[in-house]
Design goal:
7 strands; single chain; Rossmann fold; about 900 residues; mainly alpha; two-stranded antiparallel sheet; about 60% helix; 43 helices
Length: about 900
């Protein structure tokens, strides 16, 4: 409607007043949306009528007074000469005909002295009894000069279905009843209205919003336009900032929403909650799910939406500015907002929107201070959404999720247990972000809280333990503890203890894994078990583990089996293959962005590197494992990387740094985990290097007692007997040391090269000179086969000294030289000083760039410097003995040395020796 038409409305009302003055009655209905000027125009009519000498009676109906019988009529007559109003009956009773005629007659009597004007604002809220009186008045007041002017909201929301509007279709057809509709301003009218704004805004120094921007934000609503211009004038920002959620513009928006009735308010909140996903069916569904503040069915959501569009608050199904949506939601309580988000989540999930959107609604109330924004009936939705977030492609609609997520039991998290997953393409591995996993974990925490079934709750607890391993190993330990120590009746149907047992074993918790598999459910039950899950781990087929590690990607379900597979390789004399496998697994963990996975895999890789003698690499990755989780925060995992650091720093000669890592107390909790036992052993080795064999012996014996209590006394894992034997030798107790070594040699693990090799070295140290050489030669060969270069260097040094004692100084010197070369290659300065104190750097040692050796010559020379025979080198490299001899001849000539005893140490990186 143009400004000219607005002026013509006032003119028409003036004409009506003039007509009434000469004895004719009129009725005018002013209809428009909230904020479009109905009340302002009604006030103008009242002022003109009063100025013209008419008697003006006013009343403003409100929603709160709708149930007050004759409330509007009492407002009308309160300023007029008193005349009687009939007594009322019940709220919905139709007034007696005599009472309505009496009211009409009283007004006609008043009109004898001059025109009477009744100004009624917001008649859609009028009480039923007043409506009956007013309709009767409109029909029967003629020819008295009585003017009835009423305003009504467009798309009025009549919550009382039995109530009809004041101006029924029958009355609107009467010739003396006129209907005037007020609409929104056009862009041109908006610009014209803005031009009459306060002079301080816009001004030459403060360029305001363009007319297009003003119309876009306000929709042409005069009330919103005035509020926006007022807010801009107060802020005086250049350019103007967006309307504040608590500023004048937002207040005006809320006023328009409130005037749109309860249905309009409910719809506005639903639209604000759904945001860009809002559609009319979804809005309707959200309000159905809420069950309160529902727009009445006969008029429905469409009528409420039309009211909000008519007043310019909505443009289609979108608020014209984000601050509007924020303001609409801000006036509701956190609990009400939580219910809105909950309804939105359920409606959007049923509509097949991406899981991330559904999760956002389910989790939004948590940041709003609502602790539990869902109920038991939402359990299936929470679990389904969480699993969809963890799927390879979480943004796909539900219809394209993996079938195991859509066909599973609707209230059971899937899959929680069972065999290892089949190989999947590398592209299906967890994407490079941790946010979906974090949101999934929060959803499952809510699901666990509201789960109505104990068995289902246990299933969710297991899933949460898997997820916690991604970021916080210590939390994974706590969650798994709560699960396995809980009542057996709380475990879900089809409970498979092998899955949580594998997780416990991956966390190093051998006794608890044994107890779970034994069916007793308590940590102490491992003592009654005839075996240990550690046996299954150490005795598994290495080839199957390597296949698993090559074909199965890192996922929540596969994490524990993959970790255990690496440990099988690590403790089965496949050290070099364990390095490769753990490195590959670490790469997947780093790409996943999961700090917990990265920490555990870095620790595995560090331990594997330490076994092959790469102390520097072990130190680097153990440090990275601790850095991934900067604060221990409970749990036992941090003991593992600390153990590697203590041993690696000792081998490198960084004894002060090693001492800095021996700072964690060995608590009772630490001694329930392999991580803690590894640390206890490393502390003992550190004390041994400091010349404190008594303290070291105590740590080694304690390690043995704990392992024996677990029925997991496996020297392939922790050779505490040979460790204790070293301490006893330092104390001069050769007999007790020999007894421990012989005990270890009698165990089944003594058939493993690494265990037997270390045992024979200690056995030689406890025997007479005549037997040492043979034992040490066998020890050197076994340890070379195992790939442990640190232990090989120790046995080589022992063999060199034994050869000297056997009056074979040339061979002894050559062997000691091999030990020196091997420690030099590894950079193990600390080990070198331990084995060959004061050996320094012989003049014959050359740098890698000093000699023009071919790659093949370097490989042969590096192995020869380690003390391998020609036949051993040929077997290692897969060539003939003749080829080895030819390479060595050329190496001797190029280096100017006489034999392998004079071979220099070559850096480890120059000899690429396959395993």
């Amino acid at each position: 409607m143009t400004e000219a038409e607005r002026a013509s409305v006032a003119g028409a009302l003036k004409t009506v007043l003039t007509t009434c003055a000469v004895g004719r009655s009129r009725a005018v209905l002013i209809e428009g949306a909230a904020g479009c000027g109905k009340s302002h125009l009604l006030d103008a009519v009242a002022e003109r009528a009063a100025a013209a000498g008419a008697l003006v009676l006013t009343a403003a109906a409100t929603e709160q007074e709708r149930r007050v019988p004759l409330g509007v009529l009492r407002q009308l007559v309160c300023s007029a000469p008193v005349f009687a109003l009939a007594r009322t009956g019940t709220d919905d009773a139709v007034p007696a005909e005599e009472a309505m005629r009496a009211f009409c007659a009283e007004l006609c009597d008043l009109a004898l002295d001059g025109p009477v004007v009744l100004c009624l604002d917001d008649v859609q809220h009028t009480d039923p009894q007043s409506l009956h009186h007013l309709r009767h008045l409109v029909r029967h007041v003629r020819p008295a000069p009585v003017l009835v002017v009423a305003t009504v909201a467009a798309h009025a929301d009549h919550t009382d279905l039995a109530q009809e509007p004041l101006f029924t279709p029958e009355l609107l057809r009467l010739p003396y009843v006129r209907r005037v509709r007020l609409g929104l301003l056009t862009p041109e009218e908006t610009a014209q209205a803005a031009a009459t704004a306060p002079p301080q805004w816009p001004a030459p120094g403060h360029p305001g919003r363009t007319p297009g921007e003003l119309h876009s934000v306000t929709g042409g609503n005069p009330l919103l336009l005035r509020a926006l211009l007022q807010e801009d004038a107060v802020n005086a920002a250049v350019p103007p900032a967006g309307p504040a959620p608590d500023g004048p513009f937002a207040d005006a928006v809320l006023a328009c929403v409130h005037r749109s009735g309860p249905g309009g308010q409910a719809v506005a909140r639903a639209v604000a909650t759904l945001a860009d996903r809002a559609t009319e069916p979804l809005v309707d569904r959200v309000l159905d799910l809420l069950g309160t503040d529902r727009p009445p069915r006969p008029r429905g959501t469409g009528s409420a939406l039309a009211a909000l569009r008519a007043c310019g608050v909505l443009d289609g199904l979108r608020f014209r500015h984000p601050s509007v949506a924020a303001a609409v939601l801000a006036e509701t309580s956190p609990r009400a907002r939580a219910d809105l988000h909950r309804g939105a989540a359920r409606a959007l999930s049923a509509a097949g929107v991406p899981a991330g959107v559904v999760a956002g609604h389910l989790l939004a109330p948590l940041s709003d201070g609502v602790r539990v924004p869902v109920g038991p009936e939402d359990f299936a939705l929470l679990v389904r959404t969480a699993e969809a977030l963890l799927a390879p492609h979480p943004d796909l609609p539900h219809a394209t999720w993996p079938t195991h997520l859509t066909e599973a039991h609707p209230t059971r998290p899937v899959p929680l247990a069972g065999a290892l997953p089949a190989a999947v393409p590398q592209s299906a591995v967890l994407p490079d972000t941790s946010h979906p996993a974090e949101d999934a974990e929060r959803l499952l925490v809510l699901a666990h809280h509201v789960c109505p079934d104990e068995g289902e709750r246990a299933g969710v607890a297991l899933r949460l333990a898997q997820l916690a391993a991604r970021r916080r190993p210590q939390v994974a330990e706590q969650r798994l503890t709560a699960l396995v120590t809980g009542p057996r009746s709380a475990r879900p149907a089809g409970w498979d203890p092998s899955v949580p047992a594998a997780m416990l074993l991956a966390q190093g918790r051998v006794p608890e894994a044994a107890a779970l598999l034994d069916g007793t459910g308590g940590p102490g039950a491992g003592e009654r078990s005839p075996g240990s899950p550690l046996d299954a781990l150490l005795d598994a087929r290495a080839g199957a583990c390597e296949t698993l590690l090559r074909t199965v990607p890192l996922t929540d379900a596969a994490f524990a089996p993959l970790v255990n597979a690496v440990r099988t390789l690590l403790y089965s004399d496949r050290h070099e293959r364990a390095v490769v496998a753990s490195g590959r697994l670490l790469g997947q963990a780093e790409r996943s962005g999961a700090p917990g996975w990265r920490a555990v895999c870095a620790d595995l890789h560090a331990e594997a590197l330490l076994r092959v003698g790469d102390a520097s690499g072990a130190r680097e990755h153990a440090t990275a494992a601790l850095d991934a989780l900067p604060t221990p925060g409970g749990g036992t995992f941090h003991y593992g990387p600390a153990a590697v650091l203590v041993e690696a720093c000792g081998a490198l000669g960084h004894h002060d740094e090693a001492a800095g890592h021996v700072r964690y107390p060995v608590t009772r909790q630490a001694l329930t985990s392999l991580y803690g036992l590894r640390y206890l052993r490393a502390r003992g080795l550190h004390q041994l290097s400091l010349g404190q064999p008594h303290l070291a012996l105590a740590d080694f014996r304690k390690t043995g007692r704990v392992l024996q209590s677990w029925r997991a006394d496996r020297p392939a894992l922790l050779p505490w007997r040979t460790d204790a034997a070293q301490a006893l030798l330092r104390m001069g107790r050769l007999g007790r040391a020999r007894t421990l070594v012989e005990e270890q040699l009698a165990l089944p693990d003594a058939t493993r090269p690494w265990v037997r090799g270390t045992s024979l070295r200690l056995l030689a140290a406890t025997g007479g000179p005549g037997h040492r050489t043979a034992l040490l030669r066998e020890s050197v060969e076994l340890l070379r086969r195992s790939g442990d270069r640190l232990e090989t260097a120790r046995s080589l040094a022992g063999l060199g000294h034994a050869l000297h004692a056997d009056d074979r100084p040339s061979q002894g010197a050559a062997t000691l030289r091999a030990a020196w070369n091997l420690t030099q290659q590894m950079g193990a300065v600390g080990l070198r000083e331990e084995l060959l104190p004061g050996s320094g750097r012989p003049a014959t040692v050359l740098s890698a760039g000093d000699v023009p050796l071919t790659d093949a010559e370097r490989r042969v020379a590096a192995l020869a410097a380690e003390g391998l025979t020609n036949r051993g080198i040929a077997a290692r490299l897969g060539v003939t003995v003749s080829t080895v001899e030819q390479h060595l001849t050329r190496v001797y000539r190029k280096l100017g040395v006489h034999g392998r005893a004079d071979l220099p140490a070559l850096p480890a990186g120059t000899a690429s020796v396959p395993g």
